[in-house]
Amino acid sequence: MFSFDVKKLSIWKIFTDQETKERFVYRFFEIMPGFLVWTSFAVLFVLSFIKPVWVIYFILVYSILWLVRVFYFIFYVFVSWKKYREEIKTDWMKKVQSIKGWERVYHAVFLPTYKEPYEVIRHTFEGLKSCTYPKDKIIVILGGEGRAGKDFLERAEKIKKEYEGVFKDLIITVHPPDIPGEIVGKGSNVHYMGVQFKKYVDEKLKIPYEDIIVSSFDIDTVVHPQYFARLTYAYLTEENPLRASYQPLALYNNNIWESYSFTRVVANSTTFWLMTELSRPEQFMTFSSHSMPFKALVDVGFWQKDIVTEDSRIFLQCFLKYNGDYRLVPIYIPVSMDTVSVKSFWRTIKNQYKQMQRWAWSVEHQPYLITNFIKNKYIPLQVKLRYLWKVIEGQYSWATATIFLLVFTRLPLYITHVRGETFALVQNAPLMIDTLLTFAMVGMFVTAFFNILLLPGPPPKNAVLKYFTIVLQWILLPVTLIVFGAIPAIDAQTRLMTGKYLGFWNTEKTR
Question: How does pLDDT run across 143-157, given as a tens digit for each residue?
Answer without folding.
Answer: 999 988 888 999 999
